[in-house]
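Ticket #4471: structure output looks truncated?

Reporter: J.K.
Steps to reproduce: submitted the chain below (242 residues) through the standard prediction queue, then opened the result file.
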Amino acid sequence: MPEDSEGTRAAGPVTAATDRLKATAASFDDSALGEPSLCPGWTRAHVLAHVARNADALTRLLTWARTGHEHHMYPSAQARAADIEAGARQPAAELVQDVHESAERFAKAIMEMPDHGWEQVVRPGLAGQGEPIPSRRVLWLRLRELEIHHADLRADYGPADWPDAFVRRALDETIRSFSRRDDVPAFAVSVDGRPAEPLAQDARVTVSGSAPALLAWLCGRSTGADLTVDPAGHLPILPSWL
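Returned output as attached by the reporter:
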């Protein structure tokens, strides 16, 4: 996958992931959309509504970078939740169209971004309270949402289908993030048989498995049944991913 520093050239993986998710969304009728997703308390319709509103939220960040005027992802947690609930109540055809149109708005924002705009700093999160990032990272944020939430739909797409480049970057990012957190238990991970990488200096347990399987477990999309623990025992109990 191209680095996000390359601006619009990095949009290719986002476009491909969007097309895959749209194809899955189009396969659902109203009944299927009402079935539970992998996100606790959310149906498939909630996941798709969130994906649509996330596209609009990230479009606002790109608009901020392009114009210099602050445009926050969401004004508040309450507004974000209300928008998702409203979107999830749409009939299947309207919700799928919502996913399509919001993705097109995001794609348009990418194409309108001048080269220098990709280094402009924006703040993701509620009411612009997140850590500042260069706007080029917005492409990665969108790709991560698409890939993870596609698996959340419980359709014919799961961690084993995630592109290798996405898995490598997301896994590396997750391991580094967890190693800096105080709420993560001390353990090490061994990816695809490579030497264990500790998440804390006093790690005495090693969790081993394939890169997709480890990422799925670390981000709460798997029970970790396909992983091994050394010494034998239970997997560490993880906090929320993000």
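Triage note (M.O.): checked the attachment and the full token line is present. The chain has eight helices and six strands.
Status: closed, working as intended.
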